[in-house]
Design a protein that fits this description.
The chain is an all-alpha fold. Helix content is 92%, strand content 0%. It is built from two helices and no strands.
């Protein structure tokens, strides 16, 4: 799964969690509030995973370009 997909999934969980928490407060349902908080936490984790994947892919791309440049220098 790409970083973008993880971040999108994270945002979805966060929004869903916020809605659950607010509805839980409105109808005085503690269980729904807790479920909402858990979804928000899960969403934050997915977002961080997405950010880490994006950063890792950036590093991999830089390393691959550097290796390519070094090979080209050796061929010259």
């Amino acid at each position: 799964m790409s970083g973008f997909k993880d971040k999108l999934k994270g945002k979805t969980y966060q929004v869903k969690g916020e809605i659950k928490e607010k509805v839980g407060k409105a109808i005085d349902d503690r269980s729904l509030q807790v479920d909402g908080k858990m979804d928000q936490t899960k969403g934050a984790i997915f977002e961080k995973v997405g950010e880490i994947k994006d950063k890792a892919n950036d590093v991999i791309d830089k390393v691959e370009h550097k290796i390519k440049d070094l090979k080209e220098e050796q061929d010259d």
